[in-house]
Amino acid sequence: MPERCAPSLPLRADLVGEQPYGAPQLDVPHLLNVNENPYPPPAEVVADIAAAVTEAAGTLNRYPDREFRDLRADLAAYLTAESAATGLTTDHLWAANGSNEVMLHLLLAFGGPGRTVMSFAPTYSMYPEYARDSLTTWKAGTRRADFSVDVAEAIEQIRTERPSVVLLASPNNPTGTALDSADVRALAEATADSGPDGGATVLVIDEAYAEFRREGRPSAVTLLGEFAHLAVARTMSKAFALAGARLGYLAAAPELVDWLRVVRLPYHLSAVTQAVARAALRHTGVLQAQVAELRVRRDETVTWLRERGLEVADSDANFILFGRYPDRHEVWQGLLDRGVLIRETGPQGYLRVSIGTREDMAAFRGALEEVTGR
Ligand SMILES: *Cc1c(COP(=O)(O)O)cnc(C)c1O
Fold first, then answer.
1. 278 and 302 share a domain?
2. Is 256 part of a structural domain of the chain?
3. Structure confidence at residue 6 as a pLDDT band (50, 70, 90)
4. Cβ proximity of 353 and 313 under 8 Å
5. Residue 126 belongs to a domain
6. What domain range includes position 299?
7. What is the pLDDT of residues 360-372, one digit of tens each?
């Protein structure tokens, strides 16, 4: 960390040498590095959001509704329609400032000193940070060479570690690979008694990219009625084109959600955030109009990269992991020099590109050909 951290500060020993989350925020023409939706909200949505914020502004002398039940009801309705789930009520929903905060709430409630949280690498770089911040031991299990999860093997690893929480992103970041529903069911069954003391492990399926999944991959939301230790995290940051609003959410049994209410900070979701999210949810169709288009462009980009002889992970998300390059940093830098910012992440030799507009992807292809000669 920077020199300005004076050595006399009583910093936690486990934070020495740690760096803040730092995907570069650069001003370049083609931003393809943090899996944002490249399309800004359309004018009609901007107008409705602005009106909702104006209304909320007149009440800002008061704390917001700390249980945000109206927003939770709207999210339950959205999720029911999106995933064909049944029985989801306001009490099954939770939300926070991004699903990152939702998952931190999960670890504050179910992790902690003496406990373990597990995931399967390579996976989302924030998971070890929630572990660190909640003083929970981090254990990374392994995936197959094609980045899919070998469920039998995963269950064995879970039974050995006996974690109180398992975080599994599906589709996974940075690989894009998704679990099929038989795998999620097998994991949910196996985690009913794999926790510390023979109780349950909280199984979190992080579906940040769910709306981008390919046909025939049901959401884990459909299993919630059967498993009280299952939680499904979602976000409005990606498919809803609303990363700037900071709204993530989760669906789980009400008994699980009630413990998240205990650990959140009071009034953690501002009246403005609640108003913005509710306004955006009134425009689900328009906001997600481009999701289908982005999925098609993703599949085309996967094909294009494979035609060049590259190794490309299957993707159910709005990004692609590809490689391998002996010096990936050089490729990343070459693209950046041509105005295309992608992400240097994932296993050695790989790079990750988010799916942007048609123009973004043309610029990406042109720059990659120039830099790597293929
Ligand atoms: C982007 C992302 C999230 C969500 O982030 P927000 O805090 O909701 O913006 C969660 N999980 C994964 C794997 C992600 O890539």
1. no
2. yes
3. low
4. no
5. yes
6. 13-41+289-372
7. 999 999 999 999 9
> Which ligand 1 atom is the nearest neighbour of the CA of 237?
9
Considering the domain architecture, whether residues 282 and 293 belong to the same structural domain is answered as: no
Q: Is residue 81 part of a domain?
A: yes
Supply the residue whose CA is at minimum distance from atom 6 of ligand 1: 98
pLDDT at 29: 96
Same domain, 58 and 200: yes
Angstrom distances, CA of residue 374 to CA of 127, 137, 298, 337, 368: 35, 43, 19, 17, 7
Token pair for 68: 């945000």
**What pTM, to 2 d.p., does this model score?**
0.96
Label residue 216 by pLDDT band (50, 70, 90): confident
Q: Which atom of ligand 1 is nearest to the CA of 35?
A: 1
- The closest alpha carbon to 238, from 35, 31, 30, 23, belongs to 35
Q: Which atom of ligand 1 is nearest to the CA of 100?
A: 7
Rounded to the nearest angstrom, the distance between the alpha carbon of 59 and the centre of ligand 1 is 30
Q: What is the mean pLDDT of the chain?
A: 95
Domains in the chain: how many in total? 2
Nearest CA to 168 out of 207, 222, 195 is that of 207
- What would the two tokens of residue 241 be? 């084109």
Residue 1, pLDDT > 80, answer no
Q: Is 141 helix (H, G, I), strand (E, B) or coil?
A: strand
